[in-house]
Amino acid sequence: MSNRALLEVIALDVEDAVAAQAGGADRLELVTDMAADGLTPARETFAAIRAAVDIPLRVMIRKADGFAAGDVSVLAATARQLRAEGAREFVLGFLNADGSPDLAAVEAVVAELDGCPWTFHRAIDRAADRDQLRKALADLPGLDTYLTAGSAAGVDEGLAVLLAEAGRGGEPGYGARILVGGGLTLAHLPVLRAGGVDAFHIGGAARPDGWARPVSAAAVAEWRTALG
Question: What pTM does this model have?
Answer without folding.
Answer: 0.97
